[in-house]
Amino acid sequence: MRNTIDVHPARRDLAAGVSLGAGALLLMIAAASILQGISAVADRAPYIVGADYVYDLTTTGWGWIHIALGLLLAGAALGLLRGRAWAREATVTLASLSMLANFLWLPYETAWAVLIIALNVVVIWAVTSWKPAYE
C-alpha cells in the first residue's frame, strides 16, 4: 500500500541522512549546552549584560538551566541514535526548549545562542521530515 503523500526519493534520502546525523548533532548541542552552563556557573566574569534585560536571572541560574537541558538533550540524542520511537518526540520537545533557552540567553552570548538555535532548527527538521521503518 502506498502512502497518500508521495515524497520525492531525493528529499526522503536527504532527510534520512540528516536524521542519522541529527543524533550526533544533538549530542554536540548537548555537550555545548553543558559546557556553556558550566562556564556560566563557574565564572560570572565573561557574561556581561545590560541592567534593563527583561528576563533577569543570574548567570548561575542560566548556567544550571543549560546544564539540565544539556543532560536531557544528551539522553534524547542517545535514544535517537538507537532508533527509539520516543526519542523523536523527545528530540522535538527538547530542541524547542533549547531554542527558547538560547533565545533568552541572547544578551549574554549572542552569536553562540544564534548558532545553537540554528542547529536546533536543523535537528527538528531532520527528525520531523524522516519516516523511519518502524512507523
Short overview:
The chain has helices at residues 9-42, 59-81, 85-104, 110-129.
Describe this entry's structure for a reader.
This protein is mainly α and 135 residues long. Helices cover 72% and strands 0% of the residues. Helix 3 runs antiparallel to helix 4. The protein is elongated, with a radius of gyration of 17 Å. The two termini are 14 Å apart.
In terms of topology, how is this protein built?
Blueprint lengths: L8 H34 L16 H23 L3 H20 L5 H20 L6
Helix pairs in contact: 1-2, 1-4, 2-3, 3-4
Descriptive keywords:
135 residues, 72% helix
Can you count the helices? 4
**How many strands appear in the DSSP assignment?**
0
Pattern of helices and strands: HHHH
Helix content: over 70%
Give the CA-based shape: elongated
Radius of gyration: 17 Å
Give a quick account of the main beta sheet: strands, pairing sense, barrel closure: none
Distance between the termini: 14 Å
